[in-house]
Amino acid sequence: MPELPEVETIKRELEPLLVGRKFAAVSVCDTKIVSPLTVEGFQAELVGQGIEYLRRRGKYLFLHLSSGKCLMVHLRMSGALLFDPPQPQSHVRLIFFLDNGSKLVLVDRRRLGVVSILDSEKPVENRLGPEPLEPDFTTTEFSRRLQGRKAPVKAVLLDQKVVAGIGNMYADEALFKARIHPLRPAGDLSPQEIQRLFSAIRSTLRSAIENKGASVDTYQRPGGEPGTAHFNFKVAHCGGEPCPKCGTPIQRLLIRNRGSYFCPTCQKD
DNA sequence: CATTGTCCCTGGAAGC
DNA sequence: TGCTTCCAGGGACAAT
Prior knowledge:
The chain is built from seven helices and ten strands. It has helices at 4-18, 39-46, 122-125, 139-146, 153-157, 168-177, 191-210, and strands at 23-28, 51-57, 60-65, 70-74, 79-83, 92-98, 103-108, 114-118, 251-255, 258-262. The strands form three sheets. A four-stranded antiparallel β-sheet has the order 1-6-7-5. Helix 1 (4-18) packs parallel to helix 7 (191-210) and helix 6 (168-177) packs across helix 7 (191-210). The mean pLDDT is 92.
């Protein structure tokens, strides 16, 4: 499930392969993914367009086109962008043919992924909070965004308007590292806890990027390789296993219908 | 505005 | 063995 580190990895690895290329043709294998555009409308926006640069914002990926518009891609749960896959793939939704004979294939087993053509990043930007690894994300800013919120801190971390790019796995990992129980009301955290969580979010995401993302489900990099970040997971998807710090079995509970993993000893209520 | 619940979607696992 | 049911979860959206 691509979260910030996975999308960042995909962006970095696709960048040298795509920038400077042109779209020669586009095959739409699943018309739902380009909705509300028609197949013809989607193709008309892309064919002949050059790819000038790539940008990631939260879990969104943008390919900026020579027309000034951009192709927005959100992979959601099961999407992947594969560059020149050697084997025929199942669940192919879109094929982008480039002017050098290469192709970029969007596969998405569960069909939750979203693709659209936008005039700018603005509509997405307006829905997102700060980038957790950029300088404008500070403890003061983070603290201000948690202020007064009564919802569980785990739920608030998943709110993309608070911080962009954190998903279920990295929220659990950051809370464990900061030793904070996922059900604590976000607005009740002490300044020390906010500082710990702030640092934990950043170090968890940075380390995951260094490890090229976590291949827990269907995530694969554009060349088909897995990431290795999941080998460092302490709690995420580790229900029943002993906590690496104290040996207590990792517990799982549902918060807003999201499976949440934590150590009941290290993360006190 | 903050918060909560529902829906989308499908392959694999679990249950009968 | 074969069928049905449940589950994973990001984010848009509606309701309160």
